[in-house]
Amino acid sequence: MIASEGEVLRLEGPLTMATVAPLLEEGCRAAAAADRVVDLSAVTVADSAALALLFAWLRSARANGRRLVLRGVPAGLQSLAVLYGVDGLLPLDA
After folding, report:
1. What confidence tens digit (pLDDT) does each residue in 22-80 have?
2. Which of 26, 49, 59, 63 is the most buried (most CB within 10 A)?
3. Contact, 27 vs 2, CB < 8 A?
4. Contacts for 42 with CB less than 8 Å, ≥ 6 apart
5. Nearest Cα to 1, choosing from 31, 34, 44, 56?
């Protein structure tokens, strides 16, 4: 579900409570190792677990002096971030 293409981590398919657990450590290691762009354009469905996953990766990146930005964030995930009041914390790619 994570494809690494240089600095880009591409996520595909559903990001839900049922699918994010195996992605946590792999993404945290990748975010800690180098500056990353997380491409979410191929995510089919996302719930609050997706936000938790992304914030864990972001914490790992920042703790290691790395930069992480999000690209292609699905509208549903953006809406969920707005609902929870955390949309301003998401580092979106310009």
Report:
1. 999 999 999 999 999 999 999 999 999 999 999 999 999 999 999 999 999 999 999 99
2. 49
3. yes
4. 10, 11, 12, 13, 72
5. 44
Q: How far apart are CA 35 and CA 86, in angstroms?
A: 22
Domains plus CATH for the chain? 2-89 (3.30.750.24)
Query: Tell me, what amino acid is at 80?
Result: L
**Do the beta carbons of residue 86 and residue 53 sit within 8 Å?**
no
Rounded CA gap, 2 and 5, in Å? Answer: 10
For 34, phi then psi, to 5°, come to: -165, 165
Torsion sign (Cα): 76, 78, 79, 84: positive
